[in-house]
Amino acid sequence: MKNKFIDIIKFEDSGLHCDNSNCDWENKGIHRKLWDKFLNSSCPKCGENILTKGDLNRAKLFFFIINICNKVGYFFQWLGWKPNPKFVEAYAEMHKEIKIKIK
Ligand SMILES: [Zn+2]
């Protein structure tokens, strides 16, 4: 069954990238569902840790909050609210901290 409600917060996957400022390794294709497998793994280019436990925990908390916001959004849509699809779009970048840009 198709979900007729839209996500009020759309999350763009940022993939993973290296925290070393002298290194440009990144892989935007690594979906967040796979991040657990990359915990404490080293950068293929410079060997730096690309995903620490702290990064992963912050990311999981962030996705959890987005999920709750979207569920609240579904509820209001169920009540008849018609959100503008461009209402909130979040982009998060994992780089020791999470940055959220609202477009
Ligand atoms: Zn690196």
Q: Got a strand count?
A: 5
Encode the helix/strand succession as letters: EEEHEE
Name the bound molecules: zinc ion
| Major sheet characteristics | 3 strands, mixed
State the domain count: 1
Pick out the low-confidence regions.
none
- The value of Rg in angstroms is 16 Å
Distance between the termini: 30 Å
Q: Compute the number of helices.
A: 1
Give the structural class. alpha+beta
The pLDDT mean sits at: 82
State the share of residues found in helices, binned by percent: 25-40%
User: Taking strands numbered 1, 2, ... along the chain, how are they ordered across the largest sheet?
Assistant: 1-4-5
Using the alpha-carbon principal axes, give the shape: elongated
Folded structure, characterized:
The protein is of the alpha+beta class and about 100 residues long. It has one domain. It is built from 1 helix and 5 strands; from the N terminus they run βββαββ. The strands form 2 sheets. A 3-stranded mixed beta sheet has the order 1-4-5, covered by helices on one side. A two-stranded antiparallel sheet has the order 2-3. The longest helix has 26 residues. It is elongated, with a radius of gyration of 16 Å. The mean pLDDT is about 80. It binds zinc ion. The site of zinc ion (ZN) has 8 residues, from loops.
